[in-house]
Design brief:
alpha+beta, six-stranded antiparallel beta barrel, 3 domains, Elongation Factor Tu (Ef-tu), domain 3, globular, Rossmann fold, 7 helices
């Protein structure tokens, strides 16, 4: 069955957790004991309705404040499709959690409160979705019940978002007016909004085409682990385990090993369930080669006529995720695919104003939630593609050497 990974984003109190609770509730994906616990907690808090947001807001601090802090993953299915859903925080303080949750999804839902219209966080999350090369965006104008299901309010917000999104690189944007609390246009068409002629949210999620989202052209296989069983049955076995992040590999294919540049042929592609005749993204497999060559974690297998860029001077769009600001000329640990290296910040080219998407030239100070273009120099060559071509070989993270905290996520330009 087809799988869709999607995330929710939006400002605080736009109703993301309630929307997810409504999706799970209306698709009958909640166990009876979960439902009883939510009903009990809702009564104890004095709510006169079933608070479906409690399904995803599991931390005590989240429930006390009524906000989402951590990324909560939920799994559900309909007869048409399986779903992995990441409920990400709307609070500006937790933008880094939103980036983490949205980094692997095919589709993002941006919620906008019908009463407030677009706010800074709406723009920030839409911009981050564009940066992360999420190809499908659904803009849900929520709480339509609080504006009397007004078509005029919906059209005004849609036009405002269209004007902003014309500068973004998201090929597929759809607009749906909903009420997560009442269930309007979430799973079933709303009788309160006869003027809306589109599909409800769940049908849109079930039918959106994401098969083309993986790059099946550029063959890339970062080596994660070398398998040497040293057993009687597999005495001379040497396999290279990892995940295919692009292209297609088949036994007999000629391949180039990077960074050494040696060539060989694929002898077999093995899995726990037996050998395969081909492997493609995002399959996890073990590749064996016909020649005995030195290959270890962090190296890459590619095709001779289609290789990634190799270099140490890297231009990235960086989202800063730490309270401690970026240190100019500072040194950080870097992780790219399965490769660990060190790097130095050579220059901050410019920052981006998330409200206008204009470049802020001359401001070299990057703090929490800032986004900007940065020039890195790495201690060893990276095998990379532009992020817009491959989201795996085009992304990296920076880690503070002393605290071991992830301080930034970067998209290679």
């Amino acid at each position: 069955m087809d799988l869709l990974r999607f995330s929710t984003a939006g400002s605080v109190d736009d109703g993301k957790s309630t929307l997810i609770g409504r999706l799970l509730y209306d698709t009958k994906s909640i166990f009876e004991d979960q439902l009883e616990a939510i009903e009990r907690t809702s009564r104890e808090r004095g709510d006169d309705y079933l608070d479906l947001a409690l399904l995803t807001d599991g931390l005590r601090a989240e429930r006390e404040q009524g906000i989402t802090i951590d990324v909560a993953y939920r799994y559900f299915a309909t007869p048409r499709r399986k779903f992995i859903l990441a409920d990400t925080p709307g609070h500006i303080q937790y933008t880094r959690n939103m980036i983490t949750g949205a980094s692997t999804v095919n589709l993002a839902i941006v919620l906008i409160d019908a009463r407030n219209g677009m706010v800074e966080q709406s723009r920030r999350h839409a911009f981050i979705a564009s940066l992360l090369q999420i190809k499908h965006l659904i803009v849900c104008v929520n709480k339509m019940d609080l504006v009397d299901y007004s078509e005029e309010v919906f059209v005004k917000i849609r036009e405002e978002f269209e004007q902003f999104s014309s500068k973004l690189r998201v090929p597929d944007i759809r607009y749906i007016p909903i009420s997560a609390l009442k269930g309007d246009n979430v799973v079933r068409r709303s009788e309160n909004m006869p003027w809306y002629e589109g599909s409800p949210l769940l049908y849109t999620l079930e039918t959106v085409h994401v098969g083309d989202d993986h790059n099946h052209v550029d063959s890339r296989f970062p080596v994660q682990y070398v398998i040497r069983p040293q057993s009687e049955q597999y005495r001379d076995y040497r396999g290279y385990a990892g995940r295919v992040v692009g292209g297609v590999f088949k036994p007999g294919d000629e391949v180039t090993l990077l960074p050494s540049g040696f060539t060989s042929r694929i002898k077999s592609i093995d899995t726990y369930d037996g050998p395969l005749q081909e492997a493609f993204a995002p399959m996890s497999v073990t590749i064996t080669l016909e020649d005995e060559l030195d290959l270890s974690r962090g190296d890459m297998i590619a095709k001779p006529n289609n290789q990634p860029s190799v270099g140490q001077d890297i231009e990235v769009m960086l989202c800063w995720m730490n309270e401690k600001p970026l240190i100019p000329r500072g040194k950080y640990k870097l992780r790219h695919t399965t490769l660990d290296a060190r790097c130095v910040i050579k220059d901050v080219r410019y920052k981006v104003d998330v409200n206008t998407l204009h470049r802020v030239e001359g401001d070299k100070n990057m703090g929490l939630n800032d986004i900007g273009r940065v020039h890195l120099r790495t201690s060893r060559p990276l095998m990379y593609d532009p992020y817009e071509r491959n989201r795996v070989t085009g992304s990296l993270i920076l880690i503070d050497e002393f605290t071991n905290e992830t301080v930034a996520a970067g998209m290679i330009l």
